[in-house]
Amino acid sequence: GQQVMQIPQYQHVQEGEDFTTYCNSSTTLSNIQWYKQRPGGHPVFLIQLVKSGEVKKQKRLTFQFGEAKKNSSLHITATQTTDVGTYFCASPREAGNNRKLIWGLGTSLAVNP
Amino acid sequence: KAGVTQTPRYLIKTRGQQVTLSCSPISGHRSVSWYQQTPGQGLQFLFEYFSETQRNKGNFPGRFSGRQFSNSRSEMNVSTLELGDSALYLCASSLAGRGAGAQYFGPGTRLLVL
Asked: Which chain B residue lies closest to A87 (C-alpha atoms)?
């Protein structure tokens, strides 16, 4: 069945370095959603990408959806300690007349001050 | 708008007991999904309710059940608790009519089974 693979699983960076997490699928995705979960917190919806090749920015965060709609990336420029957390991607899969979200396992980001 | 609320926030139970968790979605959201999260296991989907009907279900044993009320509030129940049920249980509400829309999560209920 459709899966979304997220890499890397963990990433340690120095504050100020850039960070990228990738979400890959063997099948075409209708859309991709990104979430952030701070330590001890709950996932927070960041953004949804729908169009092939779409690029969206939120301050230091840049989200991309691949041209073939089989992969997506989240890039953080000049990381800060407030970026610490786990970043998840998720994408819908058809389930009969409805759709169900398939989640990546997440990338945990640690930032050394 | 008020966010998703979950009660209780923390719970300690013993093996064999049962537990009921409650979730109130964002006003206007008719879809409520439940997830189990344990360290290193990501988000495991339990089930989704829409207009009082279970629309999708994950791969969990029948000890896990849920329901949704006419006001979209939802409850999940776990019977005959096992040690492995210790986890953070998250509820998320969504606007999407066909499911898999952007999920707005509550703070979760941390369940410890002793």
From this structure: B42
